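Review this chain:
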Amino acid sequence: MYITRHFRILRFNSIVCSRKSFHVFAKACGASIINKMLPANRAPIRMVAGCPRPLLSVEPTRGLVDEKLRIVVTNLNPMQEVTLHSLHHSEDMDMWEAFGHYVSDEHGSVSVAKDSSVGGTYTGVEPMALMWSLRPVPGSRTGLRLRKRDVLSPMIFHISVYNGHIAQGFNQLRPLVTVIIERWYMAPGVQRIDVREKGVQGTFFFPPGPGPFPCVLDMWGGGGGLVEYRAVLLASHGFAAFALEYLFLEEVKKVDGNYFEVAYQILQEHPMVIRDRIALLGLSFGGSVVLSMAANSSVIKPRCCVCISCSHATPVHSSLSEVYKGLNTLAYKARVENNQIIWRDIILPIPTDPAEKVDVGLIKCPILMIVGDDDQNWASLESAEDMIRMTEKAGNRHLLEVIIYPGTGHLIEPPYTPHHRASNFMVDGKEKVIMLWGGQTRLHSYAQEDSWEKILDFFNKHLCRASQQARL
């Protein structure tokens, strides 16, 4: 069981005290004395049930990034205007914020899960918008993307309440109350193991317990590098997971189907992995690798596959360098709008020649396709439609499940990850551009939450139900 802890403290200028000691202090001083101690630009505080300060409850204060938060403010004045603000200092040393404007009820309370925000970075009843509507603070560098690199440490957020409806200059104001929370990708007891074996590089994550566990081979896209946060989150939900690094700038000529087959065999041979319960998971180009290996490899026989924002029109028949050479010959189809690069036209129209795409009709395991209909980076929607036709022709349509999300872009990540419509991207590791990914913040965020639940259910169905499921 994942255990959360909740602490309540009251802050008064530089004083931090317990609830009991503050009641004693307030009773002894009286409201008039307390109000004289407030900054000149702060409204007087009305004594409410012996406590002059708002209380902020955020639960869990320590939890996984895909856990919903329960945020409640009490001890406000009735019908008081307040701003709830979330602040995060990223590993790249950038500041990210989200905020919503609320009006307390007749009891002086605000519940983010029930009450509507009337302004800010989001509006309406949105329990998790203080996470998914995060954006760089004004004056930040352009093209930022918030990603976790060190999964051994948490993401730390300051959740604060400000008097009035505030839209800027938060760092110049003193909040009424602040709670600091931790959001983890790695649950307690999850093991992280570096792998440098047989030329393969990556990271193993294992859930708590003796094992063995069903396993997911996780591959990201064309940005390259070792990306661990989705794999460790899968391990936090009971699956062994292997984050595979496969796009090495200096070694890309040597990476071909054999590299992925060796990685798959490493998983099969590990004593903590159930060798016949391995799934493949890929986003963007990683999804193309998944489809290619599942269709053509005599070694890789996954129990199921999940492909996010990918295409079968970029088959991996030889080395990755050859694949990229082929894509570079089509780069002239890319468009530029508002200084943002749109790549989706590169693979359009979807080829009719079977030799120019993965023959998905050869795949004999269940496939879950996650697609956003506003994907501006890759023609994932058109690819999914063509895959449906191909599997119908092959008699394998029952194996393919396609979920298309409206208003959703290319970067479909774990839930509550901030939406990035466009961000910096390195082309061939040399040229930095602003890549347009697509999506509308609210709808994209809904898709991330729903698709993650669908992915976990899919893996549970095909990897766990016929064996004892690993549990936290």
Observations:
- Residues 441-464 form the longest helix (24 residues).
